């Protein structure tokens, strides 16, 4: 039996969900998605659970798994796939992951495109759109054809790049594998991964050998290289050398490993962390000091003056060590020289999450399930912020629905005050901003909430001026506390809406509204430069997972990473505060 990871299993279940959706099978798509999410959230390997207790253990230990799915899981563990999936794949043999990556295309439209035009991949999709064939299909029209072409152009810009959120679990698994090889010292993934960029081109891993200070030959090095190229994640070996190997992983991303001697480890880490522009600056500084900086160390002539750690390399250059997230040659070097580096918000420092959806609308889990998952993730409070009525496709709540939901939240909190653990569910909303900037719910309903959050979810195509005015009108509303999704982008899928973000930032600061850094890996609405601008303008921030399922709370640190790349400190991010302090500060903003 070959080893198959939870991540791969979840991928197959999600694929099944899409295929069921395509064929219009009711209920099953959501059921498979739910199990996929539960599998991702497990803290044990499905393979180990099965080894211990077979199908029965799978049913017992993975929520929502019944007899049918348990059998599929067994088949996946034994053969790498399952019959039902193969059967459905045969009906619509298209490149699903490719087509699903195009903004605006869903399972149903992909099926129609295949049935009517035999479109199997993005190349054929583009050809058909250019030949004006798609506009003639029922339910498509010229507008959707236009949208598809835009989506293709947009995804081309991102070709070959992967979301940090997708790369993160893979890189961790590989790091763990390398750490287990005997004789290994340090293992660190450098490059854009270490800088926590939104997207990653390739994974660059550095390994040092314990005890071998100056050379990297020998058995340990060979063992590392052999272990690396034979990992189950590897699809193809591109190079298998004595100190450097390169592979293409099954997930499509390339991964390189370099073995470096202990005494050069810091210099190599500094060099391969980059980014390139930061490296150019540090090299210039070295030259000015009569030194030479390379991945092997910092040298005066032939003598090495630093290299074992990054700290000593930076120190020798007259700089304080700086966090990788800052290394973009945009002021961090000057700040490091002057001792004025920001004290970045630490990972794991969020105590609450202000955007979560429940099964009252388009979320996967009940309020109680979301609360328990948030507690397990170390949080002290969450706000339930379901969509509002004008978003009919999500089952958005009206005033009466919101009032009923409030009762359920009260009941949950009451039950919890008896408990020794301190946890609060706050009443919130993701209130839709209507076309004219008015809100989707009456003030009388908004007043009953702990916090009012607003977002644009329709009329994405207004002009920049109209869109900006519409949002600012909502920010001026005396009850509004947080702007969700300030740009509405989806990385690689959807451009941000046309909006003057500088104006929004200034308005948020002026009207006492916090701006959301959305932590969902494909959203990250505010970019690093926006965050820096907000921090400088004195606007407050919150970081939310936008969880639609219990498993999504693990995304929060991707939002923290984004905040760090925007030079944000703990004080800039309101949900680093405990619940009461958070609410007090949030409300205080409105009174200034
Ligand atoms: P990526 O992979 O496109 O997401 O971005 P990075 O930053 O990981 O870039 P990558 O993988 O090409 O190279 C890793 C690091 O190695 C990079 O951040 C800095 C360093 N590096 C690579 N090429 C050069 C170069 O031509 N000059 C300098 N100074 N540094 C380089
Ligand atoms: Ca890289
Ligand atoms: Ca690379
Ligand atoms: Zn949302």
Task: Provide structural commentary.
The chain has 592 residues and is of the alpha/beta class. The chain folds into 4 domains: 6-91, DNA polymerase beta, N-terminal domain-like (DNA polymerase, domain 1); 158-260, 2-Layer Sandwich (Beta Polymerase, domain 2); 263-341, DNA polymerase, thumb domain (Beta Polymerase, domain 3, 2-Layer Sandwich), CATH 3.30.210.10; 352-591, Metal-dependent hydrolases (TIM Barrel). It is built from 24 helices and 18 strands. The strands form 5 sheets. The chain has a 5-stranded mixed β-sheet, sandwiched between helices. It has a 5-stranded parallel β-sheet with strand order 14-15-16-17-18, with helices on one face. Strand 14 (430-432), helix 19 and strand 15 (453-455) form a beta-alpha-beta unit. Helix 3 (46-61) packs antiparallel against helix 4, helix 20 packs parallel to helix 21 and helix 21 runs parallel beside helix 22. The longest helix has 19 residues, at 399-417. It is globular and about 75 Å long. The mean pLDDT is 93. Bound molecules: 2'-deoxyguanosine-5'-triphosphate, calcium ion (CA) (2 copies) and zinc ion.
